[in-house]
Amino acid sequence: MPSRRLTRQDKRRANRARILQAARKVFAQHGYHGATIGEIADEAGLSNGAVYYNFANKEDLFLALLDEWRTELIRDVETAVGSSGGAGPEHSFQDEVRHVVETLKRGREWRLLLFEFVTYAARNPEFRERFAAGRQTFKTALASALADRIAAHRLQPVASPGQLAVLVAALVNGLAVDELTEPGGIPDDLLATALLALIDPGTPAGPALAT
Question: The pTM is what?
Fold first, then answer.
């Protein structure tokens, strides 16, 4: 059966995905101010005009990358919790926490981008508003996921799901800073240990998380 010919819309979607992938790499390497549309176009194997056809300017592209990052995080958390929710009784809450923690971890490229987003948002009120709205959407999704698992396991956390989501985000971002400057210096189970101390205080520290 002959393959379907790509429509103009198909090609535009494909080009947009290539541009976002290239922008992720270039922004992470050079920072927001150091990156140029020309470098992003070269990395994507497209012309400058193709970039401007899909995005109004560099900031518009940066915002689209932020939206993609948030969407990816929310999707991964919901998938991880969905998998945990369907797990049989042989899966402990500790195992579920490990699974969610692995989902929240991001590579060096995304860690660098996170801090580009934060520093740019701190200096640009309009961008900050959009950044904060996306962050709140993520925290709401995470709080809902935590509430689901807390109820399923009948736990008594030290704070509400909403407050736990704020703490989880702060821990993830804080450890990401250390991991950027001290690669390999953060124990793999440290975040899971901290989350269990907040969500399931009755869990013994250390041995319960041994791999």
Answer: 0.75
